[in-house]
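Researcher: Hi, I'm a grad student and pretty new to this. My advisor asked me to get structures for two proteins we've been looking at. I'm not sure of the right format, so I'll just paste the first sequence and hope you can take it from there.
Model: That works fine. Here's the first sequence with its structure tokens right after it:
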Amino acid sequence: VTGVQTCALPIWSSAAEAALAADDLNTAEQRLDVLEPATEGLAVRAGRAVDEAAALSLASIPAAPAPATPEPVEPVTPEPVEPVTPEPVEPVTPEPATPEPVEPVTPEPVEPVTPEPVEPVTPEPATPEPVTPEPATPAPTTPAADVENPVIAFTFGDRGTVTMELYPKIAPRTVSSILYLARAGFYERTYIHRRQERFVIQGGDPFTRTLPPDDPKVGTGGPDWTVPAEFSRVVSHERGAVGLARDPADPDSGGSQFYICLEPQPTLDGSYTVFGKVIGGLDVVDTIQIGDRITEVKIVSGAAEKNPAGVAPLDLYTP
């Protein structure tokens, strides 16, 4: 189409331009008149050619493929999952623990260990040195209820002095015997022949003046008389209590031997005569050992320094 226009138009336009240049208006008009129908025809033909060309172009363009219809996808329905119901757990109720019955253990009765009591043996009727009391002015017997408690002191050499208060109202015959012997010098040069820790110390045996502690006779001596038992529950065997030693088999076998408690001894209460207590020098008692001698005995108060004439050893106080 374009080729037709470029061939025809220059021809007509050149003739027209030549006519105009020659100032030949008539010729130019005639040329243009001829040119107009020619161009109109050309235009018509050109339009057709264009339409044909367009048709050809359209015919050469392949038709657009029809849109593909996707195959329907079947929805996958998941298989229903059965819910797992846990098996019910049966609660375990623990059986209450029944403790095995414990048989009560009944302790075997323990026999109380009774410390060996002072075991003075009934003195043999001879051997001790005879004690000759010094003559003294007779004095009337004083009822126990009317007198103060006598106090005597035993000195153990360098160990020190032990002071005792005696109980004539509780044990009048025992206190009479002890005072009688003390004022007669019976206890000087005798020694402590027994010490049992946490129990007692014991002395007053005349055999200890000459015999060693390991002699079998030591612990068996005494004066020429014995003292009847004067047991009492009024006084007890507390620490520092002073009692009369005797033969365990004979309650009326006491004599000159005495003991001092190092600790309370309640098992002796009611079985042995308590006739006094330590009121001074208990610390000395704690230090006294076997073999320590009595170097001096002194009446401190509550009694005469000498024995009254004509009064028996057990009759200084009226029971």
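Researcher: Oh nice, that was easy. Here's the second one.
Model: And its structure:
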Amino acid sequence: MKLNKSWGIALIILACLSLVSAANHFFQPGQYLAREAQQLGEQFGHNMTQFGQNMDQFGRNMDQVGNMIDGLANGAGNLEDWYGADIATKQDTQQFPAAGVTQVSLDNQFGKVNITGDANAKQITIKSTKRLHRMGSEEEMGRYFDDVVIETEKQGGGELSIRTQRPDAGNGFHPSMAVDYDIIVPPGVELHLLNNVGELTTTGMLSTVDAEVNVGKLDINGYKGTLRLKNNTGEINARGGKNITNVDVETNIGAINLYLPADANLQVDAETNIGDLETQFSELAIESHGPNKRIEDKLGDGQGTLHAHTNTGAIEIRKE
């Protein structure tokens, strides 16, 4: 028996409907799409985890670079590293009555600075050591030494100002000279320090410490109330804080190591763009976004403030 044309078309349509129905039954597109979405999500999550791990590794690698730069910066201001033992020196000591002096300021271009707080100090003692690579005659060396002047002046408001004054290099050749300072002050005297190139260290202070270095290590052991430290290239270490109200520490390239009392009360904002961030204070939560790590939290009642930032380098916040 032959089917007419209309019956043939009807059978074809019926067959197509049956096929679609069977496909819908067996393939279940909703579940299929759900499975595909789940697989894509899992793959995306895996890729992002891998990306985060890669960025963490990048951060650790940059930490190593920062540590290498730290090493170079921490040796800055040491002429012996450049010229060996062929260094001439000239020392000088000045003393001023400590009575009436509430702050000491220092402006130095190149050299090492060490300041010690001594509770028994009745005078402020300034020992300076000029260091110069040996060159030319003894007469020329003497002239070079004399050209660099240590200026000290008592100013209003109880400030004792110390400044390294160098000749204008535009007037002719003048060799680089490092000037090191060893200064003893009463521990309650405020410090406002600027050392362009070279390590800066303070010990035993019970006052505000405000210090800035362009290239070199900053090492602070002892302060009270306020601590402000700024560095461009080099490591920063700070400990021994008393009655802390404000800590502001910043470096471009270098590690930051902060030691705080276990009962510190501070609002903490610490961030490294590229590097590790660690703390011994369990109440501080660390946020991680690739190589960037940050803490925005508080210790105790958060009455004081702590700000620490480095572009490249690790940050450690530890208990004393």
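Researcher: Is there anything I should tell my advisor about the second?
Model: You could mention this: Residues 29-74 form the longest helix (46 residues).
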